[in-house]
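Renewal narrative, Specific Aim 1. Our central claim is that a sequence can be written position by position from structural information alone. The example that follows is taken directly from our test logs and has not been curated for this report. It begins with the structure tokens describing the chain, in the order in which they were read.
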């Protein structure tokens, strides 16, 4: 059985409430033994309810991954659509053929990791490849040219 945080918090709050009630009653009454006997039954009942709630809250339900896998298994395979904000696409803004590197601008899109390889495209055709080396600043990064002749304005996409 897996115990959830909610269940633990519920039991802790029940226990704290029981102890607080007993402390208040003991201070206010002269007949402590009578109240202790009556409050003991109530305390045991509250504790028992707390454990039942803990047990029911701790029952393992299917994880989000399991649910997603079941949904994906029922779907037909097709084109995967990636939102624009999570794509890794940029433009070549500077080239240095002597030192064999380019400066890429990714705008508001996600910057690539150091060491990732990107394909360079011109008019939808792959013409080269670069490896991201850094440094990174704002929306720009530097990449070493691995292959091809790259011009300013070419597009860089995750391989």
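The sequence written for that structure reads:
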């Amino acid at each position: 059985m897996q115990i959830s945080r909610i269940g633990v918090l519920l039991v802790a709050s029940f226990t704290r409430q029981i102890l607080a009630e007993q402390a208040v009653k003991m201070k206010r009454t002269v007949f402590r033994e009578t109240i202790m006997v009556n409050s003991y039954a109530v305390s045991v009942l509250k504790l028992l309810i707390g454990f039942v709630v803990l047990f029911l809250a701790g029952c393992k339900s299917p994880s989000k991954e399991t649910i997603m896998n079941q949904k994906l298994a029922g779907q037909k395979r097709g084109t995967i659509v990636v939102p624009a904000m999570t794509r890794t696409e940029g433009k070549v803004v500077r080239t240095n053929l002597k030192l064999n590197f380019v400066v890429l601008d990714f705008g508001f899109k996600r910057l690539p990791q150091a060491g990732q390889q990107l394909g360079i495209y011109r008019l939808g055709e792959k013409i080269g490849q670069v490896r991201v080396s850094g440094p990174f600043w704002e929306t720009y990064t530097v990449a070493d040219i691995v292959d091809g002749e790259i011009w300013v304005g070419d597009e860089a996409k995750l391989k």
